[in-house]
Automatic annotation (TrEMBL):
<feature type="domain" description="ACT">
    <location>
        <begin position="90"/>
        <end position="171"/>
    </location>
</feature>
<dbReference type="InterPro" id="IPR002912">
    <property type="entry name" value="ACT_dom"/>
</dbReference>
<dbReference type="Pfam" id="PF13740">
    <property type="entry name" value="ACT_6"/>
</dbReference>
<dbReference type="InterPro" id="IPR050990">
    <property type="entry name" value="UPF0237/GcvR_regulator"/>
</dbReference>
<dbReference type="InterPro" id="IPR016867">
    <property type="entry name" value="GcvR"/>
</dbReference>
<dbReference type="Pfam" id="PF01842">
    <property type="entry name" value="ACT"/>
</dbReference>
<dbReference type="InterPro" id="IPR045865">
    <property type="entry name" value="ACT-like_dom_sf"/>
</dbReference>
<protein>
    <submittedName>
        <fullName>Glycine cleavage system regulatory protein</fullName>
    </submittedName>
</protein>
Amino acid sequence: MRHLVLTVIGDDRPGLVSTLADAISAHGGNWERSQLARLEGKFAGIVAVGVPDEQADGLLIATRSLPELEVSVHAGNHGHGDTEGFTHLTIGVLGNDSPGIVRELSGALRSHGLSIEAMTTDTREAPMAGGLLFEAHFDVRVPAGTDLVAVRDELERLAAELLVELGIDDQGTGGL
C-alpha cells in the first residue's frame, strides 16, 4: 500500500469533492484524512490517500488530469507520525486585524521548538466598532521538556503588543 498526499485547488463549484473522490475510488484508493476549504472563490485542500501499489500510477495520472482541479501528489508517511514524548496546546487569538499577527505568533512558537499541526484563520466585520476582527486557532505540538511557562509568557507579551485576546488550552501538558 502506498500513501500519498494530494494538494488540490480549483475554482469553487458543486461536485469538486465528488470528482476527486471518484478518481481515488476508481483506482482502489482510500480517502483517509483531509482538510478542505473554500477561500476567495477557490476550493483548496489536502488529502491523505492510501492506494494499492499496483494502482498508484493510474491514480497519479487520473488525479493530475482532472480538468477542474490542479492536483499535486507527494509521497506520504502513513499514520500521524511519532507522538511519543509530545503533548498539544490549542491556542485561540481574537482581536483587531493587523499585518504580522501570524508572523509574530508562529515565530514565537518556532523559537520554543513548537510545531503548528493545524491552523485556521479568518477575518470578519467587527460588530460594534467597525473594521475587521482577526481570529485564529492553532493546534500546536509540544515536545517533552518544553518550558511551558516561558512559552505562555512570550505569547502573552505578544498578545499585549498586538492588542489581541489570547486563550491557551493545554491538553496533557501539566497545566499552562
